[in-house]
Specification:
Blueprint lengths: L7 E2 L13 E5 L10 H11 L8 H12 L5 H8 L4 H22 L7 H10 L3 E5 L4 H11 L7 E3 L12 H9 L8 E5 L2 H9 L4 E5 L6 H7 L3 E3 L5 H7 L40 H6 L30
Parallel strand pairs: 2-3, 2-5, 3-4, 5-6, 6-7
Antiparallel strand pairs: 1-7
Helix pairs in contact: 1-2, 1-4, 3-4, 8-9
Length: about 325
């Protein structure tokens, strides 16, 4: 395994002096899970159903526009592409969903090398882990099922779980509320798209790390507000350690990829915390959670149910 690189600080931003990191929000595709062109292919097939085919000027225009909005919910991307024609946007989004599901069935899902070990190490250190994506909740559930990661994370969120997806702060704020963060600076976000970086920044996360294996360049991530840069998710622990987070050597063994949780391993959603149980992430977090957030009790067996999804194009559009 390559030796982790020293994290780069953007513009002299420092992480010392704030509270210790207790929550990490990780973007799914391109950061923790390999994309392998599935997103680009799904967007291309969705455009083709609307008469926009490769080799045409319209196709190049639409794909470049879609790439700029990597990470945002697919339906929001298509609403921007087919402005003023919501029916066409909805049809394209449905096609995207079918195409992405078919790609999973054909090719499977692979983690980014070292990602599972990083997540295990974070959990063993008592740091809660939330997986965030712009894909639909259904697609996220399929991916976590395929990887056997349901018991590896504390929470998984999609745009369907909050009022707004990337680039708005709702996803990260909802994670803070559900997982009991008392200070927004206790959260660290890692992702490779400008929409994800803006989400983490707007939520007030103490660390907003641009991951260079994602869909956007270092310059674009810097412009979006990334506080740090890492070459891959395997460098994330070093960044947290630099911030004063204690990360002991991992000892617990987590389920291997591919395994399904036992029946009953996914608690049912819908429970509302009592007013006194809500942590001090603030009114913004409560609003972002849409009034249905529930607080999860962290621990080796804790899990908040399959509520996740969001879309990212993790490859550059030609």
């Amino acid at each position: 395994m390559p030796r982790p690189q020293a994290p780069e600080v953007n513009g002299g931003d420092q992480v010392s002096g704030g509270p210790a990191i207790s929550l990490t929000c990780l973007s799914l595709l391109g950061t923790a899970v390999q994309d392998n062109g599935m997103l680009e292919h799904a967007f291309a097939e969705a455009c083709a159903t609307q008469g926009i085919v490769p080799g045409t000027t319209d196709y190049a225009h639409y794909m470049v526009a879609a790439h700029r909005r990597i990470g945002e919910p697919a339906v929001d991307v298509f609403r921007g592409l087919f402005h003023g024609n919501p029916g066409r946007a909805e049809a394209a989004a449905l096609s995207f969903e079918r195409s992405f599901r078919a790609a999973i069935d054909r090719h499977g899902v692979l983690p980014v090398p070292g990602a599972q070990g990083v997540i295990e190490g974070l959990r063993d250190a008592g740091i809660r882990v939330c997986m965030i994506t712009g894909l639909s909740r259904r697609l996220l559930g399929i991916m976590l099922d395929t990887l056997g990661w349901w018991r590896l994370v504390d929470l998984a969120l999609s745009p369907e779980d909050v009022p707004r997806g990337y680039p708005w702060p709702d996803l990260v704020l909802a994670a803070m509320l559900r997982l009991g963060v008392e200070d927004v600076r206790e959260a660290a976000y890692a992702g490779g798209t400008t929409s994800g970086i803006r989400c983490g920044k707007r939520a007030g996360a103490g660390i907003v790390a641009g991951v260079l294996t994602g869909g956007h360049t270092r310059d674009r991530l810097r412009e979006a507000g990334a506080t740090h840069f890492i070459t891959a998710i395997t460098d994330f622990p070093a960044l947290l350690a630099d911030a004063g987070t204690d990360l002991p050597v991992r000892s617990a063994k987590m389920p291997e990829a591919g395994g399904r949780p036992e029946a009953g391993g996914r608690p049912e959603a819908g429970g509302r915390p009592e007013a006194g149980d809500r942590p001090g992430a603030g009114a913004a977090a409560r609003e972002a959670a849409g009034g249905v957030a529930e607080r999860a009790v962290p621990g080796p067996g804790s899990l908040v149910p399959p509520q996740a999804s969001a879309s990212q194009i993790s490859r550059q559009v030609p």
